[in-house]
Amino acid sequence: MIAVLKRGVTSEQKDNLCNWFESMGLSVNISEGDYHTIIGLIGDTSKVDIELLEGLSIIESVKRISEPYKKANRKFHEDPTIVDVSGVKIGGGNFQIIAGPCSVESEEQCLSIATSVRASGATLLRGGAFKPRTSPYDFQGLHAQGLQLLEEAKAKTGLPIVSEIMNINDIELFQNVDLIQVGARNMQNFDLLRELGKLNKPILLKRGLANTLKELLMSAEYIMAGGNENVILCERGIRTFETYTRNTLDLSAVPALHELTHLPVVVDPSHASGISRFVERMAMAAAAAGADGLMIEVHNDPEHALCDGAQSVTPAQFDRIAQKVRKILDAAND
Ligand code: PEP
Ligand code: MN
Questions:
Q1: Does residue 126 have its Cβ closer than 6 Å to ligand 1?
Q2: DSSP-assigned letter for residue 97
Q3: What digits encode the pLDDT tens for the residues 163-202?
Q4: In this structure, what DSSP letter does residue 74 have?
Q5: Cβ of 129 less than 6 Å from ligand 1
Q6: pTM
Q7: Which residues contact 130 (CB under 8 A, 6 or more apart)?
């Protein structure tokens, strides 16, 4: 349930109202927007007498929220959330490009890619250290050493770093990671999501291979329910009957998610298509669709990449993509 307050309500009146809600065992979530203050109520709201509430002089309107996701719901929070990743803001008109290798392979590889993507305009460096591979015989990542190499690249380039966590027991290792990624395969690892909800660190939550938008939002809700509201959603393609591309990029997820939630939405055209020559067009399309950012896999030697070489673009290709995307954003903002 949400209660929209009239303009000019004093903080004392607001506090009294919140105390009253809390005395009914509800938790309150206050969102101060440009025009309205919205009080979101979480818990068993059946005890709240809507007519009584509507009759209060400070209340503009009261609505029940039927969707099971509350904190992630746009009705709870009209203005878009801007997530701050160590000084890099994403959402609410702040567009960012996350770029880097699928997996960190060596110091030279990581640093050379970081330096070139930064020069092309990427503002966050990605790199997998724990890789969820379909085959147990494939390269699984450099683990703690991979995170260390990312930290070194961050120290040299200034780019905040993004890396995927697969296991709750590794959380301590991610202390210096600026944005923790939850991969598609772990989107519904509820124990992991609950633990990440206790952190004071942004989370990049990727959509599962076969999950609906509502399921994605319920997973975001797990993180937010623990108190961590810094969640960025990522559309990375879904499984369909089509096999020509690795996945099918669900671009309509972008405007749909913007309608349903205040959280930023980024698109990963690399995993969505699985084919490096398609990444430029899909990145441009995502920018035109209103994404708040992109995550693109870049490798200095894609043919010899230890993971996802076929979908990785070279630094030169990435440079062109970044320029094209800027043109699309300029045109869209005209
Ligand atoms: C990745 O980002 O490298 C990755 C494994 O992505 P996803 O979880 O979307 O497959
Ligand atoms: Mn990958």
A1: no
A2: E
A3: 999 999 999 999 999 999 999 999 999 999 999 999 999 9
A4: G
A5: no
A6: 0.96
A7: 140, 141, 143, 146, 163, 164, 165, 166, 167, 170
